[in-house]
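[[Encoded backbone]]
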Amino acid sequence: MGLCRPDPPARPHPPRPGQRQQHQQKQRRGRPLRSVRPGPAPPRPARREMYGHKYPGSFLKAIVNRPLQKEFRASSPTYMSLGSVLCLVTGASRGFGRTLVRLLAPRLGQGSVLLLLARSAAQLAELAAELRGTRSGLRVEFVAADLGCEQGLRQATAALREVLPAGPPGRLLLINNAGSLGDISKTFLDLTDPDEINSYFAFNITSALCLTSSALQAFGKQPGCSRTVVNISSLCALKPFKNWTLYCSGKAARDMMFQVLALEEPDVRVLNYAPGPLDTDMQLLARTKTGDADMRQFFQNLQESGQLIDCSVSAQKLMKLLEEDTFCSGAHVDFYSI
């Protein structure tokens, strides 16, 4: 019986195109030479980390690198029903609130009641008429009131109590969207007028607190029912922006306020949703009226590079969060983290 010849030692494969150059680069850097095999690109940083960097440079880079927005077509989507809901939306007459209401209405089941709140009676009446004409089985009511004053807040609370008996007993959905920028031409040291400051916080904080607590009390705790509260938040709730003392303070206070609600009332679903830099009238004010020149340029760059988010795109993400209902109650969820 003959002896088997041992196999010759394996020879390394010749380098593939581009590998020789990589070896040479590593040698020049003083790194140990090792075989380089093609593989998947290293993972990008998490969107939450990218979006959380400081502005304006890396923050702008994070927005520029985000995935392209999906085009919204109102006639094509298949809606998931939220069931029979008593729904209240503040700041519903324009911008994100108006877009959100249009996406929300088709998802409300038969017998639902939709109550719209804002300052502009004409815009509310137009929107209510539009929804009534395109959505059967949905009762749409509106109240034109200034939530920043005591009388307007009472009007809104009275309207809510009036529609409660007609609303379905199963679910309450309250979306606190109303808000304002304040005077962003002023620095911290310029804010010395107590009336100006109190007026801002009355509209942006007090009204949200009083309206939410009144709605939850009026709806009550019922067996088998659900109560959901959404606060439209902002990156400014987490990070300071120059000349935005009032806005950042208001958003931070509202976030914490609703976190306390989630802690005290575990049966209430609470969400702080930051919709991202939206293409709205408020964004126009940001890039033209902000006192700090660097911040103005930052917002102008967002607009000129086409990186502002269409309201319908962000509103669809909020709808997805509400439909899936898997968020941690009280959490701050950003557009870019979804």
Observations:
- The domain at 83-277+312-325 is CATH 3.40.50.720 (Rossmann fold).
- Residues 231 and 272 are 5 Å apart (CA to CA).
